[in-house]
Write a structure and sequence with these properties.
Blueprint lengths: L10 E3 L6 E3 L9 E2 L6 E3 L5 H21 L3 E5 L2 E5 L1 H6 L7 H26 L12 H11 L5 H15 L4 E4 L1 H19 L2 H13 L1
Antiparallel strand pairs: 1-2, 3-4, 5-6, 5-7
């Protein structure tokens, strides 16, 4: 009896139930689902990579606006206070709260920015039919690893809760950075809906072998 050996590079595991499937070409617009749990494995879309890169660049521009533009204006008893996200981060920079400064900066600004730049680095050349850059697969793996730690949307939820608490004590005006943050969360969400991880991995692997 001849023993059949499976090539690991031709197998893909379901992210939900870990069932192994033979990797096959999936036409654009179609979906490949897990035979056991019906989880979507691949869902390539026409022009998806171009949209992902454009949205990632847009998100980076919005990130700059979020950090440096006025975020909130507070006025009470004739006094006004203008604050940005950078001011909020630096507010904890003294004494024992210094680690909180690094945590807020990392989760709200640094990690999301690094993830966006890693996506652009890994996928950008592919949309121009150019070879993938060195370590593109590592950059995309980094982007996927950082996804759960990019918490800009958590920050905006925290801001909303804070606004409810201080609304009765001061007049609050939302600055352009607040709306830039809302747009950033929406753009990031839309970008992730276009992203088919297995399709990108397969493209990067093909580029590496060629």
């Amino acid at each position: 009896m001849t023993e059949t050996r499976l090539d690991p590079s031709e197998l893909v595991a379901c992210p939900n139930c870990d069932t192994l499937h033979h990797m096959q070409d999936v036409p654009e617009g179609a979906r490949a689902r897990c035979m056991r749990c019906n989880e979507i494995l691949m869902a390539p879309k026409g022009g998806a990579m171009t949209r992902i890169v454009v949205l990632a660049v847009t998100a980076l521009i919005l990130m700059i606006a979020v950090v440096f533009f006025p975020f909130l204006d507070l006025s009470a008893s004739g006094l006004e206070q203008h604050s940005s996200v950078l001011d909020a981060i630096m507010a904890f920079s003294d004494g024992m709260l210094l680690p909180l400064t690094f945590a807020v900066a990392a989760f709200v600004v640094v990690l999301p920015a690094v993830r966006l730049m890693a996506i652009i680095y890994a996928i950008g050349p592919l949309i121009f039919d150019r070879p993938a850059r060195p370590h593109a697969a590592r950059a995309f793996r980094l982007a996927q690893t950082l996804r759960p730690w990019s918490m800009a949307e958590i920050f905006i939820v925290g801001v909303a809760v804070a606004l409810v608490k201080i609304a009765g004590m001061a007049t609050v005006s939302l600055g352009p950075a607040f709306w830039a943050l809302v747009a950033l969360v929406l753009v990031t969400t839309i970008k992730d809906t276009f992203m088919c991880k297995l399709t990108i991995w397969k493209t990067l692997e093909t580029q590496r072998r060629s």
